[in-house]
From TrEMBL:
<feature type="domain" description="OmpR/PhoB-type">
    <location>
        <begin position="1"/>
        <end position="73"/>
    </location>
</feature>
<dbReference type="Pfam" id="PF00486">
    <property type="entry name" value="Trans_reg_C"/>
</dbReference>
<keyword id="KW-0238">DNA-binding</keyword>
<dbReference type="InterPro" id="IPR011659">
    <property type="entry name" value="WD40"/>
</dbReference>
<dbReference type="InterPro" id="IPR016032">
    <property type="entry name" value="Sig_transdc_resp-reg_C-effctor"/>
</dbReference>
<dbReference type="Pfam" id="PF07676">
    <property type="entry name" value="PD40"/>
</dbReference>
<feature type="DNA-binding region" description="OmpR/PhoB-type">
    <location>
        <begin position="1"/>
        <end position="73"/>
    </location>
</feature>
<protein>
    <submittedName>
        <fullName>Winged helix-turn-helix domain-containing protein</fullName>
    </submittedName>
</protein>
<dbReference type="InterPro" id="IPR011042">
    <property type="entry name" value="6-blade_b-propeller_TolB-like"/>
</dbReference>
<dbReference type="InterPro" id="IPR036388">
    <property type="entry name" value="WH-like_DNA-bd_sf"/>
</dbReference>
<dbReference type="InterPro" id="IPR001867">
    <property type="entry name" value="OmpR/PhoB-type_DNA-bd"/>
</dbReference>
<comment type="similarity">
    <text>Belongs to the TolB family.</text>
</comment>
């Protein structure tokens, strides 16, 4: 559920049984911004969809023609506790799991699984009442952060979150000028893939669009100290990738441009205090590997400042301290971890600050320059004091807060909401009916794996804060299986043949979850694998392993730790029920079959490189064939290679995620853009 949808819901709850006019919604939800009727209609439509309501036969929200909306569901006020403490503050060194060194170690769950009775209307109504109760207790809901002080034990540390932008669509990359009067940010409509750059004059609440002479996407703005110049990244136009410097007080002056790596579509920019140089992130050599450079704006020469020697994305984000003498740097480690470093621009000294254990988008500074601010694992902002290493939570709202940014005065802005929302739909054979919405929540539900008999669905969700492994039964009951204490990238789920075990990867480390015993286990020798799948029985897993620069498919005995090579030059593979191995290669088109020691090509039409994008069920190989107009469900018969395609009657279907049961029940992942807003963070 988008943050603005949640805000409208709270507004209707607070005015239950009263007509809430569009003017009231604009005043209370959009804080008086300029809002179109279409924007309000879209949010009301999303809210109705979330609670399973209908405009024609409403059970929750009734439209009063020419007047507004009224919440007609029964609302009960629950007794509020005297104080609701915030979750305990994590330490910077806290890790997700303590892994024993024993063979086939087990991770015992310390709490019972969390159960959910599905998303019936009765359950949703109870959820609305719970939201009302939480609102009235003054804890962590969005509206409370706007309108009153937090009553938690850490109230003095919690800062207010106030919306700044009000456009429909996605607003990201906030950059506040040092005088606090101008906000630059990137914006795009939900139906558009093109990013534009907009400037908000905060005192006048007026907007202007940045329109340089070149065409392309504009992102990652940065103001000069005096606010006279704006630097940004422009890519996708005729000129390729460029750093652009605009003279904001001389709009007729042609922008200055500097070339960047042709494949660069993300960066991080900071102005040197002199105003004659930029610090920025760019690729050099490998398109996805980033380093920090200093660009001299007078002669155009650039100097490389960092040389990370780690696997991952390299140094991908920077933030200059208010004093201009040091820089916080985000370094990607093994793709799923972020190291925050401190780079002294005077001495050239590097110092490790903390490894957070999950990906970050940005980092910011406080005004004194003695603490950094970044997103915590559960989607709220934390302040880390550099000298004491004390970590303090500073936001507590229902919406995710990320991408913090600060100006030289220490004024904080951030992004509210998530760029994408994901939910799971089920499409049953013979596919004559529309797919049915099957798993959805206020956060992301993804990486599905349906049991072979179709009676259970494993998936990943961050609805409880951190990504966790969940299970949904056919009767609608949903159970949280894991209680991970730190951010983890969970992926590549699949059921064993008897549906008793779930295999997957956690930060590229293979795991097996025993459903009956509620036990998470980590097989030996499988610490860095991709495209995990079950072997020929429940004692073996197969996965892609990079060996001496060559991808291989190997089989692993999860009890003894023994491993064996199955096929060279292969990247993703799965066994069918007859024991034949199907696989794809990175540099050759098609899907291949290994059976009785002989390799033959099944088809050259499809080449899946992601294990979750295709599946074997029955005698068929299934995948989503991406098409610009409409995606297609493709089925390849493994006996004769015959291909059957069926248009999927839905938009936003992800071709990277698919699961199919033996009876032909198809689980589709619906991935769509979600609205985000720029917010200010202040006491």
């Amino acid at each position: 559920m988008e943050s603005r949808v949640m805000q409208v819901l709270l507004c209707l709850i607070q005015h239950a049984d009263q007509v809430v006019s569009r003017e009231m919604l604009i005043d209370e939800v959009w804080r008086g911004g300029t809002v179109s009727d279409n924007a309000i209609n879209r949010i009301i439509g999303l809210l109705r969809q979330s609670v399973g309501d209908s405009a024609k036969s409403p059970l929750f929200i009734r439209t009063v023609p020419k007047k507004g909306y009224v919440l007609i569901a029964e609302v009960a006020k629950l007794a509020a506790p005297s104080a609701v403490p915030l979750p305990p503050e994590p330490t910077p060194s806290e890790s997700a799991l303590i892994v024993p060194s024993k063979p086939f170690p087990a991770y015992e769950l310390t709490q019972p699984p969390v159960k959910s009775g599905g998303f019936s209307r009765r359950y949703l109504a109870s959820g609305l009442l719970l939201l009302l109760a939480l609102t009235l207790t003054g804890t962590w809901l969005w509206q409370q952060a706007f309108d009153r002080e937090t009553t938690s034990e850490s109230a003095s540390d919690i800062m207010r979150v106030n919306p700044i932008t009000f456009f429909e669509g996605q607003e990201i990359d906030p950059a506040l000028s040092n005088d606090g009067r101008k906000l630059a940010f990137a914006h795009r409509e939900l139906a558009d893939n093109h990013w534009r750059m907009r400037i908000l004059s905060i005192p006048e609440q007026s907007y202007t669009d940045v329109e340089p002479t070149m065409l392309g996407n504009m992102r990652y703005p940065a103001w000069s100290d005096d606010g006279k110049f704006l630097a940004l990244l422009n890519w996708g136009g005729d000129a390729g990738c460029q750093l652009v410097v605009l003279a904001m007080q001389q709009p007729t002056l042609a922008p200055r441009t500097f070339a960047c790596h042709a494949a660069t579509q993300s960066t991080s920019i900071a102005w040197a205090p002199s105003g004659n140089a930029l610090y920025y992130v760019d690729a050099d050599g490998e398109a996805s590997y980033k380093r920090i450079f200093r660009l001299n704006l007078i002669d155009g020469r650039r100097e490389q400042l960092s040389q990370p020697h780690v696997s991952g994305q390299g140094d991908y984000a920077i933030a200059l301290a208010p004093q201009g003498n040091k820089m916080a740097v985000l370094r990607s480690i093994d793709w799923f971890n972020t190291q925050i470093l401190l780079f002294d621009l005077v001495t050239g000294e590097w110092r490790n600050i903390v490894e957070v254990g999950y990906p970050l988008r940005s980092v910011a500074w406080n005004a004194a320059g003695d603490a950094i601010i970044y997103r915590g694992e559960a989607g709220q902002l934390y302040r880390l004091t550099l000298q004491s290493q004390q970590l303090t939570r500073i936001t507590s709202v229902v919406s995710e807060i990320n991408s913090p940014a600060s100006n030289a005065a220490g004024e904080l802005t951030a992004v509210s909401g998530e760029l994408f929302e994901e939910e799971l739909w089920q499409w049953s054979a013979p596919y004559s009916q529309q797919p049915q919405r099957w798993v959805y929540s206020s956060r992301r539900d993804y990486s599905p794996a349906i049991a072979h008999d179709g009676n259970a669905l494993a998936f990943v969700s961050n609805r409880s804060g951190l990504p966790q492994l969940w299970l949904k039964r056919q009767n609608g009951q949903e159970i949280q299986l894991t209680q991970l204490t730190a951010f983890s990238h969970i992926n590549e789920l699949s059921f064993s043949a008897d549906n008793q075990l779930i295999a997957g990867t956690l930060n590229r480390r293979a795991f097996v979850f025993n459903i009956a015993q509620q036990q998470l286990q980590f097989p030996e020798q499988m610490n860095n694998v991709q495209n995990l799948a079950w072997g020929t029985d429940a004692q073996h897993l197969i996965a892609a392993v990079l060996t001496d620069g060559l991808w291989q498919i190997k089989s692993f005995d999860i009890v003894t730790g023994a491993q064996s090579l199955l096929v060279n030059d292969a990247f993703t593979a799965k066994y069918d029920r007859h024991g034949a191995l199907y696989f794809s290669r990175l540099h050759k088109p098609g899907i291949w079959r290994l059976q009785h020691g002989a390799v033959a090509q099944l088809t050259d039409r499809f080449t899946p490189h992601i294990g979750g994008a295709w599946q074997l069920a029955g005698d068929d190989l299934w995948l989503i064939e991406p098409r610009q107009a409409q995606p297609q469900l493709a089925r390849v018969n493994t006996l004769d290679g015959q291909v059957t395609v069926l248009p999927v009657p839905m938009a936003n279907v992800s071709y990277r995620s698919l699961s199919v049961s033996d009876n032909g029940a198809v689980i589709l992942s619906m991935l769509a853009k979600s609205s985000t807003d720029i917010v200010s963070i202040s006491h």
